[in-house]
Specification:
This protein has 12 helices and 17 strands. The chain is α/β, with parallel strands linked by helices. It binds L-homoserine.
């Protein structure tokens, strides 16, 4: 026989309920900060509470802003912490003064929302430890795939979040540039367009050198693998070495070159890289074009999961930040990256065994050397090869190779270079 205890009236959950709206101190009033202010001042009807911006930290208080005089500006960050707002939104970017101000806010137990990849990638151990020690909410959904809310979802769904690897396109600027170059636009035109649309970092070299992607990768590894890996310990390659012809030949070989990140972990070590890769058209990431970002979570209990959407741009980022503000107020329980992080490790840079997309250049190519035989002697088997053509005054040929270890490929290309004088440029194939 079962006995059933009588029903009890449950106490309502104790969420903070800001009576006069949620007060937000805004650190930074650039592209993203201004969009946060604009959206906070005229929030969508779905917003649960009104928002109030108590002030914005700016370097130059006299510079005109898109928000006009609707937001009070100051160059003294500390003044925005006292009296304490309900939430700090850190949209300064960069390391300082963002780190100092965020730590001061956390010390005062003021919830923090940030989209600052550099801060979390470089000072993540310190910032997350401070948040855990004081029990202060720290939200960073907009730091990776800014317009796609998935980090918080997985923080609350630990079974779904138990997977051993992921790959993704996490930098909108370089994905936009490569997509435009594949459509025959020039690199500099595409970059200028990305800057105009507010996708690119203030210093776009962080995007084009792969630094932004490596920082996001470090954040993803912390979030999903529960490991602290320094962004500068991750192998990162930029897109500067790519030619438009590479993109055209990749298309002819049945794929595309995409700026990807990938990581895998097994409880002992993490392997990771950020850089351009040949993505076959059958791969889920091959269709992620323009400023779109995506992440493919592989081997989750229910199967692979793909999340895709806008990864950059002021409005998507601002919408995600304001949802984070509400979550920080409600203090929804999440897996913050606190004491559970094991030893700090470096990601192993070696690529696993993978296929390769190769461009050879050199005068000797026109004489038709036995490339397949020379590479084959080192165990590198070619899959496809283009006819050689003259490009930028150089004879060039494009190839794809069957999967082999990176070291084997490098040895084979060195031997080819010694025998023919050819230079080689290669990127991995994403599987
Ligand atoms: N510069 C970044 C990008 C902005 O292009 O993805 C969003 O993090």
């Amino acid at each position: 026989m079962f006995t059933v205890a009588p029903a009890r009236t449950l106490a309502p959950a104790t969420h903070r309920s800001p009576r006069n709206g949620v007060s937000i101190a805004l650190f930074g009033l650039g592209h993203v900060g201004s969009a946060v202010a604009g959206l906070a001042l005229e929030p969508p009807r779905a917003a649960r509470w009104p928002f109030r911006i108590t002030g914005a930290l700016v370097r130059d208080v006299h510079r005109p802003r898109p928000t006009g005089n609707a937001v009070a500006r100051t160059s003294a960050g500390d003044s925005l912490l006292d009296p304490a707002p309900d939430v700090i939104v850190e949209a300064l970017g960069g390391l300082e003064p963002a780190r100092t101000l965020v730590l001061k806010a956390i010390e005062r137990r003021i919830p923090v929302v940030t989209a600052n990849k550099s801060l979390l990638a470089v000072h993540g151990d310190e910032v997350f430890a401070a948040a855990a020690a004081t029990g202060t909410p720290l939200r960073y959904e907009a730091a990776v795939l800014a317009g796609v809310p998935f980090l918080g979802t997985f923080a609350r769904r630990r079974i779904a979040a138990s997977f051993p690897s992921f790959c993704g396109v996490v930098n909108g600027t370089t994905n936009f540039i490569l997509t435009e170059m594949a459509a025959s636009r020039s690199y500099s035109e595409a970059l200028a367009d990305a800057q105009r649309r507010g996708f690119a970092e203030p210093d776009p070299s962080n995007d084009v050198l792969g630094i932004d992607a490596a920082q996001k990768l470090a954040i993803l590894i912390r979030h999903f693998a529960q490991c602290s890996v320094r962004a500068d310990a991750i192998e990162a390659t930029g897109i500067a070495g790519l030619w438009a012809r590479d993109l055209h030949h990749a298309a002819a070989f049945g794929g595309a070159i995409k700026p990807v990140v990938a990581a895998a972990w097994d409880g002992v070590e993490v392997t990771a890289f950020a850089g351009p890769a040949f993505v076959p058209s059958s791969h889920a990431l091959a269709r992620i074009d323009g400023v779109q970002n995506a992440i493919l979570l592989r081997g989750a209990p229910g199967g692979d999961l793909l999340f895709a959407g806008p990864g950059a741009g002021p409005l998507p980022t601002a919408a995600t930040i304001l949802d984070d503000v509400v979550e920080a107020i409600e203090d929804v329980e999440t897996r913050t990256m606190d004491g559970g992080i094991p030893d700090v490790r470096a990601a192993r840079p070696e690529a696993p065994v993978t296929g390769w997309f190769i461009r050879l250049t050199g005068a000797a190519l026109a004489a038709g050397p036995d490339i397949s035989g020379l590479l084959g002697a080192h165990g590198v088997r070619l899959r496809r090869a283009s006819e050689e053509e003259v490009h930028d005054g150089r004879t060039a040929q494009w190839l794809t190779a069957y999967p082999c270890e990176r070291r084997r490929l490098e040895t084979a290309l060195c031997a080819l270079g010694a025998a023919t004088g050819c230079d080689a440029f290669c990127v991995r194939e994403l599987t």
